[in-house]
């Protein structure tokens, strides 16, 4: 039998590889920015959830004590003190920080309602836009 000398080499040409790399690059440019924004959106959602939870705890505090914690007491009034004082019943184990590591702000009386509970966002400063915007109980 005769051997066939007509063998075909398998593989990709340089042009095919370049076209595939360009397509992958375009897809990465479209997908990567969306993936990178998820942690910021998750922090905002976690902050909103924390504020709802702390607000509910403040309302329970008011039911038991017939008043909201003062601005001077702040959120610390929701944590049980070691002296066992009447107004410190231990509604929270500890005062939480927002997802950016900053303390939640509390004021009574509030300018937006009975009290204001808010996070100053990613920048830790009042005001701002986007991820830096303040997130408060009056917005939920």
Write the layout of secondary structure elements.
Layout lengths: L13 H23 L1 H28 L39 E3 L8 E4 L15 E2 L4
Antiparallel strand pairs: 1-2, 2-3
Strand content: 5-15%
Please write the CATH class name. Answer: Alpha Beta
Strand order of the largest sheet: 1-2-3
Estimate the helix proportion, in percent: 25-40%
CATH topology: Glycoprotein, Type 4 Pilin
Distance between the termini: 84 Å
User: What would you report as the Rg, rounded to the nearest angstrom?
Assistant: 28 Å
H-E order = HHEEE
Structural class: mainly alpha
Mean pLDDT over the residues: 82
Given as residue ranges, the uncertain stretches (5+ residues, pLDDT < 50) are none
CATH architecture: 2-Layer Sandwich
Shape, per Cα inertia axes: rod-shaped
Figure out the total of helices. Answer: 2
Number of domains: 1
Biggest sheet descriptor: 3 strands, antiparallel
Q: Would you identify the CATH H-level superfamily?
A: Glycoprotein, Type 4 Pilin
Total strands: the figure is 3
Task: Characterize the structure shown.
By secondary structure, the protein is mainly α. It has a three-stranded antiparallel beta sheet, with helices on one face. It is built from two helices and three strands, in the order ααβββ. It has one domain (42-139): 2-Layer Sandwich (Glycoprotein, Type 4 Pilin), CATH 3.30.700.10. It has helices at residues 14-36, 38-65, and strands at 105-107, 116-119, 135-136.
